[in-house]
Amino acid sequence: MSKKSLYYLVKFAIVMVALCGVSICGCLYPFLVSLNGLDKGSEAVMWSQLIFYWLTSIPCFVILGVAWKIASSIKTELFTHKNAKHLKNSAILLFVDSTVFFIGNFVFMLIGYNPFAIAFFMLVIIALIASLALAVVGHYVTRATTIREENESYV
Virtual CA dihedral for 62, 53, 127, 87, nearest 10 degrees? Predict the structure, then answer.
């Protein structure tokens, strides 16, 4: 696969993930929160839960922006220390965000406003696995960059 086709394929995937994220934030979260709120009758808790979900979604879109930057470097040089740093920072951001998401959902579950806790906890597990994968890829990009620089210095 050429660099150009890989570049467009990765950018297309990022756009598709972003569209899925927007549809989840704009449609699914309000729908799930309103289903729960109709039974309880507390509008303040409904809005706090919805705003919590929106706020914890922001780091995911930030990570997509970083992924866009990394994908832009496919045409020139993918294995750089800058990309490795972006990957490691994204891993940390996703780990912190998923931890906050877990704690928030646990609190909503304790007060009885999260009947979808199992699904959200599965989402936390997926996010933690993705965070670990980002950290591993960031580590290997760092190692590959170091090896490439050493090989260039010998030539």
Answer: 10
